[in-house]
Amino acid sequence: MKRVLFVDDDQMILKLIERKMKSTDIKCHFAGSGKEALKWLKQFDINVMFTDIMMPDMNGLELAVKAQSISPNTMRIVLSGSTQVTAIVDAINEGHVYKYIVKPWKIDKEAIEMIEEAVNISKEWSAGDDVKSEKIIFVEASVLKKASLLGSWVLTDDNLSVIESSFDGGLPVDWRDQPYELINGSDGVLRLYNLDMGRK
C-alpha cells in the first residue's frame, strides 16, 4: 500500500490536502504536530512525509531528524514560506531532507503527480534499487552553499528547468542570457547562473 503522511499545525491546510488526495489510490495520514507524526511513523510504513517547517513544540527540521532514525526509508520533504538558502541547506544537512518546497504549495494535478512519483521512488528505495528520478531533483548542500554566496542567482538542470533561485517572485526576463557555471549535482549537471556578474 502507498502511504503518505502530511504534517502541518494548520488544520485547514490538512483538510484541503485531504480533499484533493481523495481521488488518488494513496492512503493519506494527517498530523497536526511533530509528536503526532512520530506516532504515525512508528505505526505504519510511511513512504513519504511532507512536513511544514514552522510548527510549535517541534519544527519540521527537528521532526525530519527524528523521523530518519525511526523510519529511514521514508522520503522526507519539507515545506516552508521561507525562501532563505540557509534554511534549505540546514534542512538538507541536518534533517536529511530530500526536497524543499516553497509555500504556498498548490495541490493541483502536477503536485499529485509529484507525490505519486515520490511514493514510487521511496518504494523502490525500500526494495534496495538504486533509482534516479527525472522529476524530483535532489540538490546537494554544497551546491546551495555556493549559490548562497552570490547576490542574484538561478539554479537549473541541464534542460534549463529552474530548480531554485534567489528570487521570491518572477525571474528577470534576461536570466538565460547571463553567465553560468556548470556544477555536478546528484542527478547530473546543473547550471548556476550568476546574474550579478552578467550585469556589471
Characteristics of this structure?
200 residues; alpha/beta; Rossmann fold; 2 domains; four-stranded antiparallel β-sheet; 9 strands
Characterise this structure.
With 200 residues, the protein is an alpha/beta fold. The protein has 2 domains: 3-126, 3-Layer(aba) Sandwich (Rossmann fold), CATH 3.40.50.2300; 141-198, no CATH class. Helix content is 36%, strand content 24%. It is built from 7 helices and 9 strands; from the N terminus they run E-H-E-H-E-H-E-H-E-H-H-E-E-E-E-H. The protein has helices spanning 11-21, 34-43, 60-70, 85-95, 109-126, 141-148, 195-198; strands spanning 3-7, 27-31, 48-52, 75-80, 99-102, 153-157, 162-165, 180-185, 188-194. The strands form 2 sheets. The chain has a 5-stranded parallel β-sheet with strand order 2-1-3-4-5, sandwiched between helices. A 4-stranded antiparallel β-sheet has the order 7-6-9-8. Helix 4 packs antiparallel against helix 6 (141-148). It is elongated and about 55 Å long.
